Amino acid sequence: MGYLALEDGTVLRGRLFGADRPAVGEVVFTTAVVGYPQALTDPSYKGQILVFTHPLIGNYGVSEDQMESDGITVEGVVVFENTRPSHYRSVMSLDEWLKANGVPGISRVDTRHLVIKLREHGVMMGAIGNDDPERLLEAIRRSPRYDEVDYVRAVSTRRVIEYGEGRTCIGVVDCGVKKSIVRELLKRGAKVRLVPCLDWEKAFECDAVLFSNGPGNPKLLSALTEAVWTAVEYRLPIMGICLGHQVVSMALGAEVYKLKYGHRATNKPVRDVALTGKVYITTHNHGYAVRFPNTARGVRVWAVQPDDGTIEGIYHERYPIITAQFHPEASPGPWDTRWLFDKFLKVVERGRVQ
After folding, report:
1. 329 is catalytic
2. pLDDT, tens digit, for every residue of 78-113?
3. I need a surface site. Which of 18, 49, 155, 293 has the fewest CB within 10 A?
4. 255 is catalytic
5. Position 167 pLDDT exceeds 70
């Protein structure tokens, strides 16, 4: 038996599985039905305890080709039922995988009640463990809030890594990049140079720069706005994905704000209001969003989330810049917006978005 405690004093009882250790993090939820190995290895979830709304998690196990990084990056996992796998490609169960990565989980929690609470109150700090609930609540009080920690430093590469042998070189500033982003660029014949977020200058030896997804509060990454303007001065095409979209937007004058409970799902609509006029189904994983004051010159919004009007993508009239708040590389899907990588490589060739 174990507990999930929330900062508002709520304590939910369940069954512990995975690693036998406590965990503290920001409690968030995803409505994705499939793709739990990809979600759990997405560096953007660093610092967070992930709740799955789908009631059965683990039924196709874990296989090596489902990873978005070298291991599980979430702080903890909450599910209703942790199932045994039944799939020919599975090499281990969810429970075994969490144990191997030192990550705790808790099952048999009323995830419907929990998600309703998070939707009404907003995301909260929480803790998983078998301690007395009061000790878990004290651990939450002693821990820094999610918004106060620079998690990018923990997930960024420590050295320059190069992939592929293509003629076009894309320098990826690694804020917590997913492997799928690198794979999509390689599929299109590009060479990828992955550089540490703090050594972003090393990306500017390439033909273009991509600012990747990643975890945490973008306001703590204000130094990266210098990287964006350096790329502009070098006349390098720029792409931003998720956190990268927020960083690029901040450099262009955007304000960043935190969403009440974020967008985390594999079925979020995005309306293209400038380039194609279509609506795409996309994967999201972000707790922050941007808005632009009327004084921002040259910035054009090309994509919005029709449910709440969140800006989902921008481009610039004068500079070769295009961004996406959503994930065009999403694995296992949907694949509606993978064309964005083709468009970016055309921007690299032509030097403009239109």
Report:
1. yes
2. 999 999 999 998 999 999 999 999 999 999 999 999
3. 293
4. no
5. yes
One of 242, 263, 286, 316 is an active-site residue; which one? 242
Q: Are residues 249 and 284 in the same domain?
A: yes
Q: What radius of gyration, in Å, describes the C-alpha atoms of the chain?
A: 20
Amino acid identity at 199: D
- Tell whether pTM > 0.85: yes
Same domain, 54 and 112: yes
pLDDT in tens, 329-343: 999 999 999 999 999
Q: Please say if 197 is a catalytic residue.
A: no
Tell me which residue has tokens 């033909």.
207
Compute the Cα dihedral for 18, 24, 25, 31 and give only its sign.
Answer: positive
Catalytic residue among 245, 263, 316, 327: 327
Distant-in-sequence, close-in-space partners of 322: CB < 8 Å, separation ≥ 6: 238, 239, 240, 302, 313, 314, 315, 340, 343, 344, 347, 353
Task: Spell out where 168-254 has E strands.
Answer: 169-174, 191-196, 208-211, 238-241
Residue 332 and residue 195 share a domain: yes
Least reliable range by pLDDT among 109-118, 121-130, 188-197, 289-298:
289-298
For residue 259, how many C-alpha atoms fall within 13 Å in the half-sphere facing its CB?
A: 21
Mean pLDDT of the chain: 95
Closest to 225 measured CA to CA, from 257, 191, 248: 248
Phi/psi at 170 (nearest 5 deg)? -110, 120
Range of the domain at 21: 2-148
